[in-house]
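Minutes, project check-in
Item: structure for the 325-residue chain
Input as provided by the requester:
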Amino acid sequence: MKFLPHLSVLFSILFISLPSSHSSSSNDKIALLEIKKALNNPPLLSSWNPQTDFCTTWTGVECTNGRVTALTISSGEISGQIPVQVGDLLELRTLDFSYLTHLTGNIPHTITKLKYLDLLRLKETNLSGSIPDFVSELKSVTFLDLSFNQFTGPIPGSISQMPKLGALQINDNKLTGSIPDSFGSFVGTVPNLYLFNNKLSGKVPESLSKYDFNAVDLSGNGFTGDGSMFFGRNKTTIRVNLSRNMFEFDLAKVKFARSIVSLDLSHNKIFGKFPRELSKLRLEHFDVSYNHLCGKIPRGGLLQTFEPSAFSHNLCLCGTPLKAC
């Protein structure tokens, strides 16, 4: 019985030193109030009352077991920059700042503390500057959406080091340069690539030909050279949009996956005869206009169901739905 007092002291020390879920939850609440303050207490966050339960009554906040796991602030009059305190919400799985046209600055480095983050959407804001390399430190992110912003500079090659990334949406920015060579060596899953409506240029790395992309959209850029590496008879690709570039390759030599349902190659310098393979696809969207294609459009399949405009302004295409050969 002599040891009981010592055991009592030991258990007291352990109890004091172990972090409680209550204190962690309190830290989340403090971080949220700091975020509200950094955003100048906007009306959109008027429900963020310190006297109420942030997990059940605060707009845009979702919790699991008392911890903030999702923060969505969108479609409101928010001005300023993304508060650095978002990095203090250590259990976040979803971070969404979208449709905030007065949100400026760049992505804060503190975001790298969010080791469980699965979805990062910073869409249609006024964020600018280069996409920071440290985004690649978010190893749990499966969906990265930085579309409709003012980002400039090159695509960070380090994005290829995000092992769980399933979709990369960086379209509708002002990005320059080409697709990084490192995109030929993704460390994990092969993400859908949505790079359209930027100022990207140059040739697409040939190393991307080994990948079986589900969806690729490079439209509205200045890419040159061969774009046929995204195709292959044994691939399972569903959607490809290479329109409004300067791609130049022989369409007759391309082998198409039977899985393709959407194909847009319009406004390029693609040449050659029209491949019969295209008549075997179950296409929902199709456009090869404004190219250098020639020859007869094969009958059969769904090709004749598309408007003449989908085939127009080529070198010498003929046959239904265009004029007879």
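Outcome recorded: Confidence is low (pLDDT under 50) at residues 1-5, 7-20.
No further action items on this chain.
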